[in-house]
Each structure stands twice: as C-alpha cells, then as structure tokens.
C-alpha cells in the first residue's frame, strides 16, 4: 500500500480564488525517494504544506499511511530552502528541538537527555558538523546551516522527510556534496522522501521517481522512473543515461513554459 | 603595550563630558556671581548633599523602593498583556486603541485621582510609576511576538507543536531582545512616575524633598535631589543594559565587537 497518497487534490488559498494546484493524484511507496520538479509558482510548496498538514485541501484527500490527514503530522521531518535554525540555540540545541516537541521523546527527554544528546551528536557527526555543535547558526556557513537543518529534520526518526528546495541557496559544489550526504543517510536508514526542487540534475540524481508539474494551476504532467543504480556517485551525473533523463525532463519543462 | 589614547578617550568619554560640564557650570556660577538661591554651583550642591546626607538617603530609598515596586508590577502586567496582544489578533484589535488612548493621558493629571482613592504617600507613587512604565514593555513584547517569522513557526507546527509550545520555544525567546530593550526605557520612566507623584502628593521621597526644599528657596538641596534621581536612573539603566547584553547575545552579535 502507498505510504503517501493524493486523491484528486485541489487547493485554492482563498475561497473561490484561483487554484494553486488542481486534481493532483500521486502515490509514494514506503521508503521511496520522489522528487517534484516544475517551473517556479507551480504549487510545489503547496504540495509540501498539504502533506505536512499545514494546509487543508479544498477538495480531494491526502492520506499518510492509510490515514487521512487532519492537522499537522508528527511522523514528518521538514527542511526548507532557508535553514530556519533558531538563532538563540547552538547547533546541538537546534538539532534537539524536535525531541522537545514530538512524543514519545518529549516525555523521556528529562530522563534520557544524555542518551538523546549522544543520538544528536552521532547525526551531527554523520553530516560532517563535528566540532561545530556548540556554535550558533550565524557562525556557520550556508552549507553547514543546511546540514544542521537536515539533522533537525531527521533526529526524531520520521518516516517521511519533506525537503522544500533545501539546497536551492547553496553554491554548486556544496550542493553536490549535500546530495551525496543525503543519499548516504537515506541508504543507511531508509525513510520516505518527498523532495521539491527546480534543479533537474538534483531530482534525477536523488530520486527513484520524478514528477513534473505544470503551472497555474499546478498539475502533474509526467511521471518518470529513474532506474539508475545506487549508490549513485557524482561521476554518474556525467554519464549518458543520466544526461538523457535530465534532457527528457528539460524538454517537458520547456514545453510548459512555452504554452 | 603602548598607551592607546583614542581607546582611552572613547572608554571614558562619558566621565570626561560630565567633568567638563560640571567645570563649565562652576565657572559660570562663580564667574557671573549667580546667587545661590537661583542657581547653585556644583560645589554648593556637593556641600549641601554632604551636609544633608542622611535625609537625602532616606528619601532616596523611598523613591527607589516605590519605583522598583511600580516597575515590577509594570513588567508583569506589560508581559502578560504583551503576550496576549502579540498572540491573539482579537485582543490586539480590542485593546490597542484603548491602550494608546490611555498612554496619551499625562500621568500627572491622574495623580489627584489616585490620591482620592488611596490617600497621599507610597501607594499613588507606586501606581504612577506602574502606569507610566508598563506601556513600553507591552508594546515591545507584542511587537517581538507579532514579527515572528512564519517560517520559524512552520518548523514547529510541522512537528505538531501546540500553540503554547510555539510560544515557549520560539515566540518568547524571539521576543526577549525586545523585552530587555523595553526594560531600559521602562525603568527610567518609572522614576519619572514616582517622582511626579511624590512632588504632587507625598511626604516622603526625593520628589517631596525637592518640593519642600524649593519652597524654602534651598536650591542647592533641590539640585542635590535632581542629581540623586539621575544617578539612580543611570545605575538601573546600566543594570538592565548589562542584562540585555548578557541574555540576548545572539541578537546583538557583532555590535559589541566593533564598539570597543
């Protein structure tokens, strides 16, 4: 059974106003990595808000794990384009934040603080931020902030990770480095990922399935399976099959922009 | 290490200015032979202060005490109302015009009413200090909460945090720099409030001391009282400025580094 399921979902932010997305139907399997690409303003972020329960669909249904979504979800981790770290907390404290909110960690935090801190440190080390755990966000570079932000999204072991253009504001080298980091994390301890991006190479490199969205209102035009063997390396991005995939997606996006 | 003249000047600029002003003041008073019952020289103020040290301290303590009590109430009320105004749009809509209107009333005009209700003395002074100083606290706390970035809120909401969680984890820490900034303003206003009330309706406190002294043309004592109020204000201001720096370092990063 699908882990995340959209059934004919439409959403208008204002009642009777223009639709941000229209008749979206898609399903994501457990531990599948999907990417949603499309031109800016195609309602990609709306999709994220629907899954996380921050917005409610105007019509249609969204299910997670077979249950219809009503209100914010607990089994979700989110990371956005801006790292949104709390400036008054150190890296470690920022990463620990979900444990102060989400059950069952919340009620165990007082007793098991040491254990949870070790858990956070392990994750921090895993993304290459060792030695920066007691620094404040403004002392970190953009890439480091984004690493911390991904740690925060994963610390409570969510079943679903939502990424809203998480690498959009980074330089190309840092971005590719973080792709590999994310792929490693995902392969070590699988979880379901929905990645929203406008970077086609990023989508093809990371995802099992790529959905292309049109704009105004957002609809799903194409679904493409990316059957490139994992773990994918950066060298793969220069190979022929990879380039072909990116090229096909590029053409779809191009035709949307013309119409 | 070589003596850095510029750094030394910047560090002690405020003391040097005060000394300079006192010197000019003294020169004017002595040079133009200004009579002491009009405008006493600093030296005369100083000797008056020494001569009547004990009564001055007694009245100063009274003023200090009423100011602090009024200020403490103002902080609590300002904090509670500020959180309510900053969190609930309906409270904001309902309360704001009323509060702005109230804040526009000169508090001197309100003291006689307080006297009728509570008699002369400590209580009206405390209440005046409170009334005059709670507004900046309220406005700042409300502003700090209302300008919270929606993205930060989303981070918590996507974890299923309750409204109270969001207030505790993001809202209040975020509003803390605003809160501390308002304390600096509020404490000086609280002194204004208590002294105003004491001059109008009290037989205690620096305000009363100055009223009594001026009615007997003892200008040196009046000025001594003024200076005592000023010193108390500066000390309390510095205390809260220090606390602000200490507790909200993240909001003032970089500023302290450049300002020596």
TrEMBL record, chain A:
Keywords: ATP-binding, Nucleotide-binding, Transport
GO molecular function: ATP binding; ATP hydrolysis activity
Keyword Transit peptide listed: no
ABC transporter domain location: 4-240
Pfam family, any one: ABC_tran
InterPro entries in the record: AAA+_ATPase (IPR003593), ABC_transporter-like_ATP-bd (IPR003439), ABC_transporter-like_CS (IPR017871), ABC_transporter_ATP-bind (IPR050166), P-loop_NTPase (IPR027417)
Database matches in PANTHER family: ALIPHATIC SULFONATES IMPORT ATP-BINDING PROTEIN SSUB, TAURINE IMPORT ATP-BINDING PROTEIN-RELATED
Similarity annotation: Belongs to the ABC transporter superfamily.
Protein name stated in the entry: ABC transporter ATP-binding protein
Lineage: Bacteria, Pseudomonadati, Pseudomonadota, Gammaproteobacteria, Oceanospirillales
From TrEMBL, chain B:
InterPro entries per record: MetI-like, MetI-like_sf
Residue stretches spanning the membrane: 64-88, 95-120, 126-148, 176-197, 217-240
PROSITE patterns attached to this UniProt entry: ABC_TM1
One Pfam assignment: BPD_transp_1
Alphabetized Gene3D superfamilies for the sequence: MetI-like
Keyword Cytoplasm: no
Membrane topology, as annotated: Multi-pass membrane protein
GO BP, one annotated term: transmembrane transport
Family: Belongs to the binding-protein-dependent transport system permease family.
Protein name: ABC transporter permease
Organism expressing this protein natively: Nitrincola tibetensis
């Amino acid at each position: 059974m699908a882990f995340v399921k959209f059934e004919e979902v439409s959403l208008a932010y204002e009642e009777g106003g223009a639709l941000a997305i229209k008749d979206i139907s898609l399903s994501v399997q457990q531990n599948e990595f999907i990417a949603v690409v499309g031109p800016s303003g195609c309602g990609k972020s709306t999709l994220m808000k629907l899954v996380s329960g921050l917005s409610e669909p105007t019509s249609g249904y969204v299910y997670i794990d077979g249950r219809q979504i009503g209100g914010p979800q607990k089994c979700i981790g989110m990371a956005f384009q801006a790292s949104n770290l709390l400036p008054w907390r150190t890296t470690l404290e920022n990463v620990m934040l979900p444990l102060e909110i989400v059950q069952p960690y919340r009620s165990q935090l007082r007793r098991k603080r040491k254990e949870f801190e070790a858990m956070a440190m392990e994750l921090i080390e895993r993304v290459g931020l060792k030695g920066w755990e007691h620094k404040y966000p403004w002392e970190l570079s953009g890439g480091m902030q984004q690493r911390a932000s991904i740690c925060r999204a994963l610390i409570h072991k969510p079943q679903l990770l939502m990424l809203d253009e998480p690498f959009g504001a980074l330089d190309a080298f840092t971005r590719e480095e973080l792709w590999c980091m994310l792929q490693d994390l995902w392969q070590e301890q699988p979880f379901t990922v929905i990645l929203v991006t406008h970077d086609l190479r990023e989508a093809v490199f990371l995802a099992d399935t790529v959905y292309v969205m049109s704009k105004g209102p957002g609809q799903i035009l194409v679904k493409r399976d990316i059957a490139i063997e994992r773990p994918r390396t950066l060298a793969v991005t220069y190979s022929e099959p990879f380039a072909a995939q990116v090229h096909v997606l590029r053409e779809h996006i191009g035709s949307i922009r013309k119409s | 290490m070589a003596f850095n003249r510029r750094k030394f000047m910047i560090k002690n600029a405020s003391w040097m200015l005060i000394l300079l002003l006192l010197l000019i003041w003294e020169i004017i008073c002595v040079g133009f032979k200004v009579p002491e019952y009009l405008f006493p020289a600093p030296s005369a103020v100083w000797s008056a202060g020494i001569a009547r040290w004990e009564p001055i301290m007694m009245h100063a303590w009274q003023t200090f005490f009423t100011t602090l009590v009024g200020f403490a109430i103002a902080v609590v009320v300002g904090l509670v109302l500020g959180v309510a105004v900053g969190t609930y749009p309906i409270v904001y809509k309902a309360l704001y015009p009323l509060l702005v209107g109230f804040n526009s009333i000169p508090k001197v005009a309100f003291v006689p009413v307080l006297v009728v209700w509570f008699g002369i003395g400590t209580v009206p002074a405390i209440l005046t200090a409170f009334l005059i100083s709670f507004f900046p606290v309220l406005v700042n706390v409300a502003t700090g909460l209302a300008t919270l970035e929606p993205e930060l809120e989303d981070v918590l909401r996507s974890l299923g945090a309750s409204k109270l969680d969001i207030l505790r984890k993001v809202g209040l820490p975020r509003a803390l720099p605003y809160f501390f900034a308002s304390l600096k303003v509020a404490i000086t206003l609280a002194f204004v409030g208590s002294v105003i009330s004491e001059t109008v309706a009290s037989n205690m406190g620096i305000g009363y001391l100055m009223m009594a002294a001026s009615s007997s043309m003892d200008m040196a004592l009046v000025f001594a009282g003024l200076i005592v109020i000023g010193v108390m204000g500066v000390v309390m201001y510095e205390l809260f400025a220090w606390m602000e720096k200490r507790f909200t370092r993240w909001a003032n990063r970089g500023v302290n580094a450049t300002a020596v």
